[in-house]
Inverse folding.
């Protein structure tokens, strides 16, 4: 067989294999088999030494033409295979615009946050400022400066989380009030919201970690009437204009006189219902006139200045306002519950 017939047969065999290739990987195998360093066309080129010198130019031209023909067939087939692969991929990735879109889940404020912002809005509207303090506190600020001596039951290790003898996790936000009074910038009108810690068992109304909002007013000629008027205004803004307040005598070490405050049930209007347990009243906070000892220990003259303080549980407000019957729901992170607010 002469060289021309051999090259023609090679080109036909390559063309057949190219047409039968079903993928780019198979096509590349054909390219290597015929045009690679160890391919059949390369082998023919290596045998050129056996061709007569006068025939070599002609044979060389035939070899180049055969190479060009095979490369053209390979390129054409490659283009067709790539287009087919692209079309198949497009079919698999097609977007059905008639399908319902995925709904974006947008977060929102927690019930505690909503209640806190409402309380802050009410007191800022009455001229109060919002003050925050450390959650890890000195026992001196958490107890001593609040007229709670060392032998007081509140200092029991079973009731308070002590880190050492003098440092603890605050059991109330009252230390923020003591720190503010020590600065000596009078008059004072402030609320102190924040997280507090007590050694309580977890149940529907208790948690070892919860939030308080405590308020403090210090100025000249402040009376219990100012306290009653302030809390009446607060209750009506929070629970509605028809809300009434009732003060019951109580005892707190840092206030004298002290009182617990009830509001008329906003569900039944004071008639008595399941929500208020038939009494017509709901307890919401504790309050009183700042004890003279507290003023003295914080560097304020009790003969010249008086004041009142109050404290309310943030979770209690949220539970009442949104009629939630179990405090644990606020912390279980159940989206079915939280998305209702």
């Amino acid at each position: 067989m002469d060289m021309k017939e051999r090259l023609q047969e090679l080109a036909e065999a390559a063309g057949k294999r190219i047409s039968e290739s079903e993928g780019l990987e198979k096509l590349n195998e054909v390219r290597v088999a015929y045009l690679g360093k160890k391919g059949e066309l390369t082998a023919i080129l290596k045998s050129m030494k056996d061709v007569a010198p006068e025939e070599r130019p002609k044979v060389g031209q035939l070899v180049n033409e055969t190479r060009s023909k095979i490369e053209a067939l390979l390129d054409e087939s490659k283009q067709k295979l790539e287009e087919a692969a692209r079309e198949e991929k497009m079919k698999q990735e097609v977007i059905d615009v008639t399908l319902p879109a995925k709904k974006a889940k947008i977060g929102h404020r927690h019930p505690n946050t909503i209640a806190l912002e409402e309380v802050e809005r009410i007191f800022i509207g009455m001229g109060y400022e919002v003050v925050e303090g450390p959650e890890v506190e000195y026992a001196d600020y958490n107890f001593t400066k609040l007229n709670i001596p060392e032998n007081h039951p509140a200092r029991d290790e079973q009731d308070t989380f002590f880190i050492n003898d003098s440092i603890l996790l605050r059991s109330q936000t009252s230390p923020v009030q003591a720190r503010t009074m020590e600065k000596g910038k009078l008059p004072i009108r402030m609320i102190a919201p924040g997280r507090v810690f007590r050694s309580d068992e977890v149940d529907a109304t208790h948690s070892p970690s919860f939030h308080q909002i405590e308020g403090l007013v210090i100025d000249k000629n402040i009376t219990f009437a100012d306290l009653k008027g302030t809390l009446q205004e607060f209750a009506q803004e929070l629970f509605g204009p028809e809300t009434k307040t009732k003060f019951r005598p109580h005892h707190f070490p840092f206030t004298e006189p002290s009182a617990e405050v009830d509001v008329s049930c906003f569900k039944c209007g004071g008639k008595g219902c399941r929500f208020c347990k038939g009494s017509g009243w709901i307890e919401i906070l504790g309050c009183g006139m700042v004890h003279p000892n507290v003023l003295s220990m914080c560097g304020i003259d009790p003969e010249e200045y008086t004041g009142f303080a109050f404290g309310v549980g943030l979770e209690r407000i949220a539970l009442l306002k949104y009629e939630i019957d179990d405090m644990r729901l606020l912390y279980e992170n159940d989206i079915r519950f939280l998305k209702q607010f």
